[in-house]
Amino acid sequence: MTTTTAPARGFVPDLRRLLHAREAGVFAALVLLFLLGVVLSPGFASSDNLLSVGQQISQIGIMAVGATFVIVNGEIDLSVGSVYALSAICTGMAISDGLAWPLAALIGLAVGSLAGLLNGLAVVLLGVPSFIVTLGTLSVYRGVALLISDGAPISLNNGMPGVAEFSLLGQGRLFGVVPMQFVIFAVVAAIGVVLLSRSRLGFNSYAVGGNQEAARLVGINVKRVKLSAFVLSGFTAALAGVLGLSFLSYVQGVTGSGLELTVISAVIIGGAALFGGSGTVWGTVIGVTFIGLLQNILNIKGISSFWQTVVTGLVIVAAVAADTWQRRRKTRA
Amino acid sequence: MTTVAAAGPHTGPAVRIAGLGRNFGPVRALHDVSFDVPAGEVTALLGENGAGKSTLLKILAGLQPPSAGTVTVFGEEVTSHDPATVLARHGVAIVPQELSLLQDRTVAENVLSGVEPGGRWFPSRRAMLRRTRELLAELDLDLDPAASVGSLDLATQQLIVVARSVARGCRVLILDEPTAMLTPAEAERLFVLMDRLKSQGVTMLYVSHRMPEVFRLADHIQVLRDGTHVAGWGREETSPDRAVAAMVGRDLAEVTARAGHQGAPEGPPALVVRDLSGRRHRGISFAVRPGEILGVAGLPDSGRVELLHNIFGGDRGTGGEVEVLGSPYERRDPIASVGRRLAFVPGERRAQGLLTTMSVGRNVGALTTRVFSRFGLVRRRAFDRNAADQAKKLRVKTASLDQPITNLSGGNQQKAVLARWLSINPGVLILDEPTRGVDVGAKAEIYEELFALADRGLAILCSSSDLPELLAVTDRIAVLSEGRLVATVETATATEESIMTLATGATPASAPADADGEHRSAGPTAPEGTAP
């Protein structure tokens, strides 16, 4: 046996592998975009601007971390925008009713996780494709959010007990510099990286998404793995919703409509395949950052938001086309 | 049947199969199959397509429950039919025909998938690499545990699937046609591994169509035919000829012989294939004249199906020429084939032949929407009338043309697909498995229709895994083995045994030299030096 001892994979080899992996292309594109931003506008690279980009991508980023688990499993969660609103409304109503804010936030997170669990149960037990299940719950959860809030917006004002502290989550800055939301995103992303690349759940997710039949053959509990992914996705959507409420002190039933598309776009741009079995949280973070920087540059240059929508769409298709092309070349070789 | 006393603590067979049956609706895939798989030895399972081998293996691996009978592993009856339990409790693992690895993950991650060493929540990568390295050393496989599986060739991936089973402590390993996709040299690596496993006391049950291989590896041979167990021997008690005879020995009277066929066909060939290569076939040359039916025989992995798809244009080939009705046909694709009056009835009827959500009429008329349209709109009445005519001509039995095609029997579905092609007035007709899943009555009608078409001057190329069918229907038979044309024989002088012998490479000396090319003639039996 002549195999040389491979180095144990610590953090640094992971980074190195990142550069060789499918994310490398997106990462290169991100660097190019950054340089483009620097060239196009002097204010772009200022720490103020970059910190505000960090703030803007945080909620999408948090949701995308959860969505990555679902997509690696070969499933999809279209309901995250609705879960975002539902959780924010539950938390907002609880605070308005005078509940302590940590408890109110926990209620929001629990509601979101439960929503994810229900998605997962429908997929796993009824055997309905997740696209259909979550297309349905996209509407159901949105409807429930509108129902319990009676269609009326919920505003938090500083007169209510605990609101000042709660607002720090979304509006505060760590050491007065780094937006709190971004800190939370970084923590969630770090946990996501470890969970997906190191934990049994992560290993099993790749197995299930890569080849469900084979996963079953080797004795992996496919249903439990998928359920976990949906719960994670619900949880991260809820966390983003709670942060959104904290940031704006305001939420209504229609808040967060269409977020699911941005979230899925970020994951796909980050290199995950919709068929499952591939993708990393690292890639997703790059994808989210890419979308954030792109919009920021377009904003700075005063390009209309209508064009921003067009450009974002083109980027998604281009990213997947590049990936497909790369794969085809690889299989031909 | 011989049962050899087993080695190891448990005396008796590793697996005892008793009265096993499996029905799919009215279809009997397995009936009252009983035999023993002796412990610590290699048993080969033989049988033609549809003999029930795959069903039997799936039941053993827990992928399907039996309809009747029992499976006992090392003295303990298998009661819970799911793969995880069968593996964990009884130590039975299967290496499926389709490779089931995660291409983007490493060797170690694949081998230990689901059983990673380490803590409850977090597996340890270091321990995974170590465990995999030990395991690979034990199996004498020189592989880097950290290599990505996608970068490895097919044969190596197969070895990893075996290693994955061993990592789960399997004591009985089932291999479903493990060499079907491998070249002889690649297969050799698998055989070395199998020998190694045998020396470690692992019991193996494997399926193969290749006689030389079976007689080299297997200690025991069991034969299934039409879902029943027809023979079992120790290796020394039988011969390749006898094994082949047991596999094919079926009542030949059930198929109609080609009657009313007048003499040798004349005129220039309607279909010429010259040195054609593509996926899993290379250097194939033959010609079919108008009025002639040329059969194509070969094992499932012989490249037979790929050859047909290459000619028709469903798959891109890599070289060679095709001539249809006197003119060269380059840049082949299905749409162009329709224009050149080249018809193709594919073998996977459900996946490739039927428009499964549509009616019988729409299926039959599928190729005529252009002919029967005006200003871009289909003239429904003319379209329907033509579909009705064609369906009637081929005796498609259906309550109405508006019936969903899936309501029809297999035979009538097949007639509908054939009827579809006849409305383009084809000059060359290619068929793959023309009567797969078709009952005897419809079979005879399809044969009669083929004869009538040939008599009208069509050149027909008919590929089938059903040898009695080829012998009954064709004028000549081209035999493929491992992607090469090994012989073209006159049907009148051929027998099932002679064709099977050519197709399995059982006696390579008899393969005529003229059909064989110069490349890669390693010879299917040449054991490349490594026999331990």
Automatic annotation (TrEMBL), chain A:
Transmembrane helix as a keyword of this entry, yes or no, is yes
Q: Where in the cell is it found?
A: Cell membrane
TM spans (from-to)? 24-45, 57-76, 83-111, 117-141, 174-196, 227-251, 263-294, 306-325
- Highest taxon above the source species: Bacteria
Which UniProt key words apply to this protein?
Cell inner membrane, Cell membrane, Membrane, Transmembrane, Transmembrane helix, Transport
- Could you state a single Gene Ontology molecular function term? transmembrane transporter activity
Record carries keyword Cell inner membrane: yes
How this chain sits in the membrane, per its record, is: Multi-pass membrane protein
Q: Name one Pfam family in it.
A: BPD_transp_2
Record's InterPro entries? ABC_transp_permease
Q: Kindly state one GO CC term assigned in the UniProt record.
A: plasma membrane
**This chain belongs to which protein, by name?**
Autoinducer 2 import system permease protein LsrD
From TrEMBL, chain B:
Q: Which InterPro entries match?
A: AAA+_ATPase, ABC_carbohydrate_import_ATPase, ABC_transporter-like_ATP-bd, ABC_transporter-like_CS, P-loop_NTPase
Q: Where is this region: Disordered?
A: 504-532
Q: Does the keyword Mitochondrion apply?
A: no
| Pfam families in the record | ABC_tran
- An example molecular function term from Gene Ontology annotations: ATP hydrolysis activity
Per UniProt, the keywords (alphabetical) are: ATP-binding, Nucleotide-binding, Repeat, Transport
Q: Which residues form the ABC transporter domain?
A: 15-251, 250-507
Name of the protein this chain belongs to: Sugar ABC transporter ATP-binding protein
